[in-house]
């Protein structure tokens, strides 16, 4: 047993066993009983992509060791803390003395694995778990022998058996058992068997006489708590009262309701200082952007009402308001391009404000506290178009705002009909979602939601939406593609009255005949990934990527005067000096890509060398008739119009490390979907990898 204890806090023979912390510990006064509970940190040998999809680098297990020296037994129980709502792992080990030979130790081990759901990777997780478990069993004997040898080298070859102390108080007379410092006190089973008084232990954690439990003047009414707030311990009730009093004394403006204050306390495990910090930031944000009045003063644009495929739909079995989002049917790119991020964020905020209002209503209707809602997300139709990077970036920023200002409002998230592309989206989004929120996610692939443990466990049959096979008509808009005629330029989007974000994703540029627009990107580390997304708003252009070892001269902006054009958004920057020669001063790293008016182009380029990369949008001249040297009539007419020599693009670029790119985007190089098709000009070579996805 001494050899076994040496495995902690880390064990060099088990590389995946990174660390362990003692959660609670109990020792009987006579030394016969020793119960210790540890939280173990494991680095599971799993594919990197699977770890990113799961959103964790390490897995945590709780292990409870119960040593009884009187009976000469050691019982070990372990269970997983990470993903406990998706995967249930239980393990039991026991060391006992052989009944026929007291010098022999018997070892028994059993374990169970139950995988409910794991982002569509259930079989992979099962294989990994079995591999790790088999490996640990094989190493068990080797590890014990390693530490036994270590003891022998230290001169320890014999440990005397435990004997009861001569003057030993009975364990039932212990009035102040040893307790962990943590406020969450664990009472070991063996302690109750030895006669400890449970009431005594519980009362020491929060005595009514202690100031944290509150005085008669600052206690909340029991009926009020039960009706509107739910179960609260004396400590939690005290935290709520103290934070509310502090707000009343210091905060100028509207004081949030107790239910809302409680959400921030729960989000920070009732740490008053941390809860106060995020609550004050949120109240300042609400006041700055007039969020309290958003439902009364802001009307969603018609585009949102027609194409945003989401809406409220009755309630779940727990009485929570139910919000249905048909994300797979929604044109996220079209909505961002037609409305901008500001309007989209404002609409999401109005949904959350409506959710808070519905929670209050349902609390009155059902006669019990309802402080969160359930969200049902249907991913039928999700494809690579939804992985449009600026759209994903906008989504992440929306999640960031919602997480900061609406904590503990999501009671459950049901994700249905997750397609094969979903793990890629989940990889991008999950790191931005709070761990407590992530535990509320239930993901179903295909038609799994119709089976045991599916939708019927959470929603009454009578209100399951018709598009999921139910009988209830759901009035949520069906979404669909947003017409490109509704798209707006960056300049138009910048004229919004209220700014919830200070930056915009897109930039506009004008391209003229003889005056291309160029963007400089400096690459320090080779194998970085340059990504781009642009729309050709007017005219036809040629898109090029060049590389140069030396930096070009400071950019010069075209005056536009030479073209007799004045344009409010006519940004035009030229970097490549006219004296530079292609092949000597700079080189082309990708084949030119001709893009027609109205096309949307996405792509990526894995850089081979450090240096300076130039993205260029150049005017595409109409070729002359192939059978004659004479220009075509259309060409002549076009040349008479000055505006025909001007093109306009809206673009977005980003540089990311290749490791992150491959691990998250996996990438756009092989993107096919019903919305888009791969450009015929896409190239791929051993030197570089590039892709351009064109949406027509």
TrEMBL record:
Residues 200-212 have a biased composition (Polar residues). Residues 300-476 form the CRAL-TRIO domain. Residues 1-156 form the PRELI/MSF1 domain. Its main location: cytoplasm. Residues 170-218 are annotated as: Disordered. It holds the Pfam family CRAL_TRIO. May play a role in innate immunity by inhibiting the antiviral RIG-I signaling pathway. In this pathway, functions as a negative regulator of RIGI, the cytoplasmic sensor of viral nucleic acids. Prevents the interaction of RIGI with MAVS/IPS1, an important step in signal propagation. May also regulate the SLC18A3 and SLC5A7 cholinergic transporters. Interacts with RIGI (via tandem CARD domain); the interaction is direct. Interacts (via GOLD domain) with SLC18A3; the interaction is direct. Interacts with SLC5A7 (via GOLD domain); the interaction is direct. This is SEC14-like protein 1. The gene is Sec14l1.
